[in-house]
Write a structure and sequence with these properties.
The chain has helices at about 5-20, 35-50, 75-85, 105-125, 135-150, 180-190, 205-215, 220-230; strands at about 30-35, 60-65, 90-95, 130, 160, 170. It is an alpha/beta fold. The chain has one domain: Rossmann fold. It has a 6-stranded mixed β-sheet with strand order 3-2-1-4-6-5, sandwiched between helices. Strand 1 (about 30-35), helix 2 (about 35-50) and strand 2 (about 60-65) form a beta-alpha-beta unit. Helix 5 packs across helix 7 (about 205-215). It is globular. It starts with a helix and ends in an 11-residue tail after the last helix.
């Protein structure tokens, strides 16, 4: 792998861990993996730090298999985790079958069901952190989606501490751009393994992504400014 892209991704993850206090000493972290480039990159990078630097933490991975989705990532992920010496868990969840009559499956419903299963598994098995593979582009897309389609200023924080659960959500890739992760995945030789959803054909996210590309001209500095705006809120100039 190119030393440049490896160093760049690693440096951004380190910055995120430091800036947002994502992983502490003795944390037990459950990485949600899908077989896609984002979560696989995150898993490889977090695994590469085990036992080499502070903080010292435990790391395991889980793949949730939905009843409507392709099961092909399972064997790849199982083998990948074995190579990294990371315990691998598999959970089969009948997400589509849970839908009430006359309701259609959508991204929000699926995400909510997966998140519920993740949290329940984490609590049952004594994990206190769940790592998700959302990157910078995901986060700023969600911010603008919520503003445009929900009329609220909210997004995907790098760290979410629940009041009612003894587990937190962390996003170590929050500073990493999607194009950087693509390059990392290609050079790591796992870019051919992708996770695609048959129900995400008419997504608000795709439309917002095009708008962001137009606004920022794909400039990293401008994307970063959108991200930083979530920390630099001027309450005197809001309703």
């Amino acid at each position: 792998m190119s030393a440049y892209i490896k160093k760049r991704i690693s440096k951004k993850i380190t910055k995120a861990m430091y800036d947002f206090d994502l992983i502490k000493e003795d944390d037990k972290v459950l990485v949600a993996v899908s077989g896609g480039k984002d979560s696989t990159t995150m898993l490889q990078e977090l695994a590469s730090r085990l036992g080499k630097a502070d903080p010292i933490y435990q790391l395991e991975a889980i793949f949730i298999q939905a009843d409507f989705a392709d099961s092909s990532p399972k064997e790849f992920l199982k083998s990948f985790c074995e190579r990294l010496s990371i315990p691998f868990h598999f959970l089969n969840v009948a997400i589509e079958k849970r839908l009430k009559e006359n309701r259609e499956l959508n991204c929000y419903w699926c995400s909510t069901q997966r998140r519920t299963e993740l949290i329940q598994f984490a609590i049952k098995n004594d994990f206190n952190k769940i790592a998700l593979g959302h990157h910078l582009d995901d986060i700023i897309e969600t911010l603008l989606m919520n503003m445009v389609y929900k009329g609220e200023f909210s997004g995907m924080p790098p760290k979410v501490i629940y009041d009612k659960y003894p587990v937190s959500i962390i996003r170590p890739l929050c500073y990493c751009e999607e194009n950087e992760i693509k390059e990392y995945a290609i050079e790591s030789d796992f870019a051919q393994f992708t996770c695609t959803c048959p129900f995400a054909k008419n997504s608000h996210r795709k439309r917002i992504r095009k708008e962001i590309e137009s606004l920022t001209q794909s400039k990293s500095s401008l994307k970063q400014n959108i991200f930083e705006s979530m920390k630099n809120i001027k309450m005197d100039y809001l309703l």
